[in-house]
Amino acid sequence: MASSVNPTVRRRRLGQELRRLRELKGMTAEEVAERLLVSQSKISRLENGRRSISQRDVRDLCGVYEVEDHRIVDSLMQMAKDSRQQGWWHSFGDIPYSVYIGLETDAASLRVYDPQVVPGLLQTRQYAEALIAGALPETAPADIDKRVQVRMKRQERISAPDNPLRLWTVLDESALRRAVGNRALMREQLEYLVEQSHLPHVTVQVIPFDMGAHPGLNGQYAILEFPDAADSSVVYIEGVTSDLYLEKANDVQKYSVMYEHLRAQALNVEQSRQFIADIAKEYAR
């Protein structure tokens, strides 16, 4: 059964604390790996929260770092236990981007730039079905349906009555012009996009073609920020076979500055709504 504990966030916080303890001890990941007779990559994966951490791992690492305060050890052991629980998304089976879902579930705000398609959190069910089927032509219908269900479940963060996700989306005009499915489906999708943009915690802006070159030409990315100050922001870049998560302050800063340029070059909110509405009318012809 899925737990209310977010295992992705627990792993991430635990990894950050283990890295802090290692650095306080003045040890490198390679030195720790040699002491425990494990690979350096395992220590790195434990610290970046990309793999589950067992209580035995925590116990061994605390031994290497000579942590004598039993309260600290017990706290870290509990975090390791929590990190092995299941989030709501695990009930859908193997989801390729489950790490991202875990982060998104706990995020306070999300800034997204997408040059190709409407972002998942703002997609209609029909658009999502057509998009996934087109993007993954060899995927079985049952798996497409599972991915759509997960996408619809993720959207509950937008409609949550308490503490909804703060979403800021910048779209390239091509995302509106790309006819996913049929024309009626696209009209419905764009009308829904306008409707969602009126929510107080959702902002949608568009960069039209005539804006020319802009900082988003390198591709899609998202910046996640969290309510707990101990959780650093994350830049997420989706890949075909693997995803990239950037957490270094310098990397996050660069992408944040780039996003500010995108927002500045895009149409303002009212202009963007009108722009989207006009294209929706074109699909009605």
Automatic annotation (TrEMBL):
SUPFAM superfamilies: lambda repressor-like DNA-binding domains. Residues 18-73 form the HTH cro/C1-type domain. It comes from the Bacteria. GO terms for molecular function: DNA binding. This is Transcriptional regulator. PROSITE patterns: HTH_CROC1 (PS50943).
